[in-house]
């Protein structure tokens, strides 16, 4: 017994994380979030339709298109209902089986004689009376559609429409089998439909609303919907889709039967009797919510007829009239729009932009051709069972076998699974997801292989850990990948360097006179977030020198934006220091000692240097050498002299021209004869767009230019404006430039003066 327990413990201890991950995958699949739907629908099922290239065996529909040409010839939408009445009459004469409007008419026709007379106040009274006595366009339209197989449309809304006066349309005849399936239908709060005179006259009414998937692509359409307040479904009305209502009229039926597989399940299909089909009925399989998966085909221009040709059919040549008769006779005619301005354009798995009316047309053709896509109600259970069973098999065998051996079984299994999914689609029109289970099992497979690899790498990690006590992490990784790099030498590269130092460190140290460990903790609290910022911006920490940080960019890994990353680090360090000081002030109060805020100076410079393994044969480190490095350290020291938080070199400033930068001076730092231009960075690109900064930049530039050209009075005028704009930079304005101007006004510099300030301190 003990031996069995030990084996079980060993089995579980190696695989416990894999079981946890498998449990998480199963839970995610049950919850079915957007990510799994994207894999299943957006990627997998869409690809099926793209590969299948379905073409309907027979077209049962044509579309009368309110296209751009019709709008140009007949005027902007909405048209007069009289014109629409003419359209319906012409379609009837051409032999249309049923006419459906993918349009709603919720308001009275303003072009009716009485309405027109009301809005035109300057008409003679006798003409107004005559116009008001004429029948309205709505009445004419209602009279025509009441004598024709016409279905008017409505649009469903998820919100309740306020101030409704007209009651909801009457429900169609509905029967339920194996329990009432009404509660399973999609629920909407309200409906936009047609004026009362039209709604009472129409032989059929259907809803044309389509809800696309989260990516805006239409894949499914509801066969029926509920409309009403949430809660008791008995208070809600049920309406068929526009397409189903057209089918009902076309087959001479009076209602629908909604079937459930059993009492506990959702909807399985919708049926209606037929006076046309030999079977005597039309069966429409749906998912449990009465929604149809649409088998799409590509856009078919030949089924479109311009609305202007129907309204003006009597003016067309006889051969064109005969052509219209051949296209329309015995067909379902859907009236809708492809005009961009009327905004009824949809995306499908096959088309990025398809008129919404054509989506309805393809649904109707799909039903008449009985070419359904079927997503069985047990599909989710099948896919879940595959994940669970195959996952347990993987967990059992992958840790025992080599990665190659398990891959020889895993890859064919995944191919068979996806192939079976594709076969069911092509041969049986059944949608079973093969991609999501494969993706889930792949995650589990990678985890198991990685765990095995990680155990094998444990000894190597211990070696890396030992060397990391002596060498920089970057060098350790390089040595782990290529031991031949354990030699001295380097390469010349253009790099950026950052030096950061705490100002006034002596008073801070004295406040910890009796607590050296506290001082160490303070330094660590400062260095840790600053290091995180540098490394987060692709920087490499070269060394810590007490309270000073030295970092560089573009080595050991290439970084084309090294100057920008160095400047971004500088700004982030300055911002983070504010929050750090708030935390340190709290610590100081708790420790009962005076709080001295940390202030820093930062220097950033760019230039060429040598980078590589520096040192001796016995001990070396990865570091940098060069004049640009030394200059970076020198200009950091000038941040205190100029009263700014940072100083950057000229090459760095040239790389970040879109930042908020001010020139400070032309200076020869201590230890160098050559003068360099130095700058300070006030902020990033957002500040650079600030009019206040732009004005300051202009005044500073004019002040320095006048100063170097010995126009000291002009320089003084611009300096005064700078002082007004940024009084917080008083060290730069007063201690530097005001002092110089005062001196030079009394004692002008010699003729050979070049405007260079020669620093006497670091």
What does this structure look like?
The two termini are about 75 Å apart. The chain is an alpha/beta fold and about 750 residues long. The chain contains 26 helices and 27 strands. Helix 5 (about 115-120) packs antiparallel against helix 6 (about 125-130). The protein is elongated. Strands 19, 20, 21, 22, 23, 24, 25, 26 and 27 form a 9-stranded mixed sheet that branches. About 45% of the residues lie in helices and about 20% in strands. Mean pLDDT is about 85; it is low at about 465-470. Strand 17 and strand 18 (about 355) form a beta hairpin.
Summarize, please.
It contains 26 helices and 27 strands. It is an alpha/beta fold and 762 residues long.
Residues in helix, % = 40-55%
From the helix content, strand content and strand pairing, which structural class follows? alpha/beta
3D shape: elongated
Query: What do the pLDDT scores average to?
Result: 86
The fraction of residues assigned to DSSP E strands is: 15-25%
Largest sheet: number of strands, sense, barrel closure: 9 strands, mixed
Number of strands: 27
Distance between the termini: 77 Å
Give Rg in angstroms.
40 Å
Number of helices: 26
Low-pLDDT ranges: 465-472
Task: Describe how the helices and strands are arranged.
Elements: H1 2-31, H2 34-52, E1 61-65, H3 68-74, H4 81-93, E2 98-101, H5 113-119, H6 125-132, H7 137-146, E3 150-157, E4 173-177, E5 187-188, E6 190-192, H8 196-201, E7 204-207, E8 220-222, E9 224-227, E10 237-240, H9 242-250, E11 255-260, E12 267-273, E13 281-285, E14 291-293, E15 304-306, H10 307-311, H11 318-328, E16 332-336, E17 345-346, E18 354-355, H12 356-368, H13 379-397, H14 403-428, H15 435-456, H16 458-467, H17 473-481, E19 489-503, H18 505-510, H19 516-536, E20 540-545, E21 548-553, H20 562-591, E22 599-615, E23 620-625, H21 627-641, E24 646-649, H22 650-655, E25 660-668, E26 676-683, H23 685-688, H24 691-708, H25 712-725, H26 730-746, E27 757-758
Parallel strand pairs: 1-15, 1-16, 2-3, 2-16, 3-7, 4-11, 5-9, 22-24, 25-27
Antiparallel strand pairs: 3-6, 8-14, 9-10, 11-12, 12-13, 17-18, 19-21, 19-22, 20-21, 22-23, 24-26, 25-26
Helix pairs in contact: 1-13, 1-15, 4-7, 5-6, 9-12, 13-15, 14-15, 19-20, 24-25, 25-26
